[in-house]
Amino acid sequence: MEIGNAAQWCRRFLLLVWCGCCTVAGAQESVDALMAAGRYAEAIPRLQAQLETATDTATRVRMLVALGEAQTQYGDASAAEHSWTQALRLDPSPATHAAVRLVQGNGKLASHDREGAIADYRDAVRNADAAADALLGARARINLARLVTGGADTLLRQAESRLDGLADTSAVVMSRLAIGIRWLALSAAGRAERTFKTAEAQATRLGDARLGCYAQGYLGAALAARGQRTAALTATRRALATASQLAAPELLYRWQWQLGRLLAEQGERSAAIEVYRQAVAQLQVLRGELAANPGQPDRLYESLGPVYFGLADLLLQRAADSGERGEQDRREARDLIEQLRAAELRDYFGDECVTTFQTRITPVGGDQHTAIIYPILLPDRLEMLVGRGDALRQVTLPITRRALTEEVDALRRLLEKRSTNEYLPLAQRLYDRLLRPLEALLDGADTLVFVPDGALRTIPLGALHDGQRFVIERWVVAVTPGLKLTDARPLQRKNLQALVVGVSAPVQGLSALPAVRAEVDGVRAVFDGELLLDEDFSAERFSQALRRQPYAIVHIASHGSFGSDPRRTWLLTWDRRLDLDHIEQDIGVGRYRDEPLELLTLSACETAAGDERAALGLAGVALKAGARSALATLWQVDDRATEQLVTHFYQALRTQGKAAALRSAQLALLAERRYHHPGFWAPFLLIGNWQ
């Protein structure tokens, strides 16, 4: 029995350093509860208010340490360091050092600095032991046990022995629950069961129904892992009853999801689907709360993703068994994926730009000449949903998510090696896996629009090869993060004007792009507008140009990078690196323009190979900028090839749709011997509106 996102829960509970010191009087939730739930935006002002009224040093130190942790998780590292410095200045004792090192380790772990986190946790263990602080010592060991490759069981036993000597408190119960979760992760289900039973008994003595609910639910997971299905169902239903009494959606969805998995494992698919639907409904209630913390960029997807995919999995299983009668289940599964894509982008950008964009678009309608392809990567198989007109068909392919991801990552690396044809066998293998089984459904289609999932976001699907031709030689290809995120209105060609900007010279430590001059000249030969090149392309002049004129096309020929963290995503102007928020402010609908930008072109950006989140950000850049479409690159391309492709694209755009114009430009490059390799032409993607 998998334990879902229990590790996320464990991480948040162990963020608390000294519980019981931050309780708010009256009906308000305690700061501890807000922190445990990951609601840092609410916890920070509560802590600051209580800090102002605290008089004794010990309380102020505890609050400063907790405030620093909340600030770290919220994304304000400098404020966190200031809080911790104040705490250590007030009390430089080993106990305070242990507390600070513990939360600093949590921050490093959230930033994917595993080794730094291990070092901080080890230091926290040493200082806690020196201070004879059993609770801090237990917590530091629990966190360390999550990261070390050997000795985790010893650390957990040491943590348990320290908790055994302490009186019942919420902090002790939280730590014991975290130990149980780690025992589950180590496949020690028997120890986990005993730990959760002890935690439930302690929570009952404390009268803490919320902690008792966690203990009941995770006891169900431990019993399931031991094969005791009936007992697991009973424990999970008890947890659900408690969560219902508490009216706590963050608990309800968790145990509804677990109950759905248990029912599915027992073959009760329809009952499982109904329970999964209830979990999805609870997550909709929680959505705004889950998205409230910009310092937790993966949190929303961590919570929603497994539940939405789990329900889609069951619906598609039932649809496959039902034949034509499964259309309703297929549509529900597709709509779930659409909701998840929108949630992912809200999560990535940390704002409601997705919702704003959706309110302004014309929905995509049915079209027999266009095939909309949804690859849904599940643990044990790949489901392909193909939409043609009003029909939605399903093809189940026997490849696991892990195996497909490995092949896709390998192809991406080989596509960037332009000096060899090593990519070709993999490009053909992936065509055989992904598209050959769909060929009957694609008959008569001239355009393929992919709504890619997972690793498939990181490769250009037009570079797959059927043994005779590339996909781009057979079809027009476009990608979109979701049909409900795509504005279907076709390009209005009358009086199109372009703002063309670029950096050709070396600046800010980045190399020159000498062909940019020819590239921007090629764009201006097709469309009227304004040019800002090199020194003229400052951030301020770019903003001023957009304020003066609502250009239909913005073409940016400059270095850019998309990363897993949107705060590390940028486009280069002459004097600074422009982040996505500034792009949204300058280009987006509502500030300087009434209508969306038709096309945003980023001709020299790149994403890291295998980085699915970075590719997600690239897919969402048009949406963030309020543009109907974006033309962007997955990796940096020879700038001479870029100049040729871009010029041909804009010339073709006079008479063709956007994706068709890109195909025309790619085929022209493909026809040249020196640029035949897909490493030159394939990384260009048309994202969003393809018409």
From TrEMBL:
Q: Which domain of life is it from?
A: Bacteria
Q: Where is the signal peptide?
A: 1-27
For this protein, the record's Gene3D superfamilies field holds: Tetratricopeptide repeat domain
This protein's record includes keyword Signal: yes
Q: Where is the CHAT domain?
A: 425-689
InterPro entries (UniProt xref): CHAT_dom (IPR024983), TPR-like_helical_dom_sf (IPR011990), TPR_rpt (IPR019734)
Query: Which positions does the entry assign to TPR repeats?
Result: 61-94
Which Pfam family is one of those matched by this entry?
CHAT
Which terms are listed as keywords in the entry? Signal, TPR repeat
Q: What is the protein named?
A: CHAT domain-containing protein
Species this protein is from: Plasticicumulans acidivorans
